[in-house]
Amino acid sequence: MALKNVIGIDHAVVMVRDLDRAAESWKRLGFTVSPRGTHSAHMGSGNYTIMLDPDYIELLGVLVETEHNAPARAFLARRGEGIERIAFTAVDSAAGAEEIRARGFEPVGPIDFERPVTMPDGSLSSAKFRVFQWPVAEAPGGVRIFACQHKTRETVWIPELMKHANGAKRLRQALIVSPEPAKDAAHLARMIDRETRAEPDGAVAVPSGSDRADFVFLTRDQLGRRYPGVSLAGVPERGGAGLVIASDLAAAEKAFGSAGVRSGSAVCVAPAAANGTLLAFVAA
């Protein structure tokens, strides 16, 4: 039985070394990027968000080394920049944590935190969250997962931040490369109580829930065959590799300029131009 308090992909976390430089890179690709957010001293991190509907992308960087961000720092040292974790939307984080505990996964949290937000009118508000994680060691395909309950959605999904020159609308797929896609997909399916689905090219999908984006596990070679002509430099043999984004393709091609690569029915940005993350824009 599927989890009742975890309802699909909420956002993808792209770990970056230089937060401000990353934000400028994504702006050049036609994304509207939020003002920089700073997390608590305990967390020691900062972020920029790229708001879609009903999900988003988070650019995350370490500002001060703390015990809390040790796994993120280890990821950067081991893998370099790229998708480090994926968040689910939690209806109720406390209840969600109990649901995964009942399935044999000891939750980390729930933990409450917040960050200041400058609203479009210049006023200062706060974005407040309650999150819980699956055990850090449970990382299917090398990607950690957690769940995020938004207590102040109005300070995160700000209409002015949801309009993008590249036409980006929403996430369709989170692409995870693995030498053993079926094994890693089955691992995730157990963690979120979902079924796997075989794809025609041998990849394995795991629906995340509701109408949200799917996870797709595939080998690096399968990824290359899906997006011919796109350099995969920077994509690991195992780990988060890319995001498929529903969009207006004409707007995407115009916004990407020379960074864009037409690959079949998609317009792509190579990982080297997007902090280790393949971006594949498809027709909405």
TrEMBL record:
InterPro entries named in the record: Glyas_Bleomycin-R_OHBP_Dase, Glyoxalase-like_dom, VOC_core
Domain VOC: 8-150
PROSITE patterns associated with the record: VOC
SUPFAM superfamilies: Glyoxalase/Bleomycin resistance protein/Dihydroxybiphenyl dioxygenase
Pfam families linked: Glyoxalase_3
Protein name: Glyoxalase-like domain-containing protein
Organism, scientific name: Bradyrhizobium erythrophlei
